[in-house]
Give the backbone structure.
Amino acid sequence: MRINSLHYAILFGGMAATFLLNDTAVSAETATAPTTTTQPSSPAEAATDTVAANNSASSFPSATLIWCGALFVLLQGALITLLVFGHLRRRRLSQALKASEKRFQDFASISPDWFWELDAEHKLTYLSDRYEKVTGTPVAIQLGHSYLRFAALEWNSNRADVWKEHRETLKAHEPFRNFEYAALGADDKPCFRRISGTPIFENGVFKGYRGTGTDITEERDRQAQLLRTIYEADHANRAKSAFLANMSHELRTPLNAIIGFSEILTDQLFGKMQNDRYLEYAKDINDTGQHLLTVLNDLLDISRIEAGFLTLDENVIDVQRMMRSCVRMLNEKISAAALTLSLNLPEDLPALLGDETRLRQVVINLLTNAVKFTPAGGKISASVSIIDDGGLEITVEDTGVGISERDLERVMEPFQQAEQDLSRRYGGVGLGLSLARNLTEMHDGTIKLESEPGVGTLVRVHLPADRVRAYPAQEAENAPGQTETLTD
């Protein structure tokens, strides 16, 4: 518009200047004409003087008009060029604006969100068409109302602190994200919304908010269903754990009698048996009862841990004495399996705060697994060391059959075993590693399994530094730093 006005101004100005110059030239011609009459000496001289006068009078206006015309043409050309470039620029801007609007419309058409605007009183002044498609509620009946009116609904009133914080955000004219609230949708059915907004200012004056909204009714229904499913699964798991705990307790009572009576028969306390086969059967009954009792104890511990009934009886533990005790308990199995076990305990080994019975159970389970999966002639090593973070690390390593990488995680779960024929040497139901992990985690520790088929297995039990204590006083024969090697 400015270029067009300038163009017309120069056009009319040039025309006016041309007429003005023409009038000036005429006036100059008149002013320069001779005012006195001189008698020519001859007719030829008179004619010559007339032509010279005419040429002199007409030379000035002709040159001026030519230069003015040339300048006028140049200005017109420059203005035409500016007009062309201005038109092209406006055309490009118009095309870019249309493309931007089309892109925005495409995004808006496929987005699950709708767009809204509020005035300074937080009343709706605009809702996109997507709102009606998603919620089924006409846009027209929502305009002029505020979503803040839903604060009195039950779900919203139970979140009074959240609404208070949201109102403070609105009062401060600050942006907000993912504010969730309950509303009344089509046919006054309850629904849930999530909105995000940013404030609008014009010349520093607050004008309202604009933002996006999403219907999260289905999402909240899925969350509620998921929570119900989790609750039901947890309830079923607790019921299972309670059942196992009760059954384990009920089975242990008669089993103790079986083990006790079989020991009486084995020791022949009331007289020697007449047939040695009866004595052999009594030993089998005792061994089977002991194995079943171990399985029941592990099962009871697992069920109590899962039910949250197992607690730790924590005291300061003499780790060296505990490790030697665990090794002595397995002497018979180690000798029977023709294995070699080495125990390495450093001189500066500190004590540990924990439940000695449960930590002893961890070590015995790991050593038992090592014996179970190590062929005759193999080696087992157990050690305790202080690591860089100040904690203690108990390691049990063997040269057994090993575990494949795909089974490393699985064998840590209850009732899971690697598929090895050797695993049936001492039986078991796959509770040892799972129980060891649970008991270690109850001591705020971690257990890590490293293994390779045909090479062996290394188990690391890490106990945190905040459980380390000063070493307790002990007798000279049990001083720290001794290394024991047990063989067949």
